[in-house]
Amino acid sequence: MGRGPMTGRIIETLEDVEEGAAALAQMCPRLAHAYRLTGPLPLRRKPDGFAQLLNAIVGQQVSIASASAIWARVEQAGLTDITRVQQASDDDLRAAGLSRPKVKYFKALADAGVDFDALRRAPSDEVVTTLVKIPGIGFWTAEVYVMFSLGRADVFAPGDLALQEAAKVLYDLPERPKERDLRQMAEAWSPWRSVAARILWAYYRVIKNREGIR
Question: Which residues contact 64 (CB under 8 A, 6 or more apart)?
Fold first, then answer.
């Protein structure tokens, strides 16, 4: 597993995920129970960069099937490059299946001047702060990007409804925890919060028999 002075541990392989899951299982009997139910966890590593954030914007507030179909049209139109998006008209972007708000978000991201190389070396909190300044990128999108595209081992996405529901059931809570409360709960899972999220997403699929994240 790689690590850096600013980035902390980087999850690069399934063995890294298994190491984190084993540590969490020792740390918390309930996570150990969930892990026994879910079996092996996915790596979930994704590319980083401009196109990956566009992909995340496409996936917001639509079904997995719809997001996949729209993204295929975006790729086919060649609209995954910063310059191409800057040069595209709103009608070009709409023709690829984007809603009016997402057209604005594509343009905002293309014009934001994000230094993706610098993000790879920046602390996770700094990456999130940088990304959420861009219209169309909220904390969930930024945290999932840091978790899966940058591979950080100690990041969580407490605003995720599937994680909230999984935590409610697993910890026998009276109601689904709010984002602030789940963020506080997740502090106990450091330095493996990203793996705890993988366990909870997998556990959510077990209890709901549905996919929790694209």
Answer: 211, 214
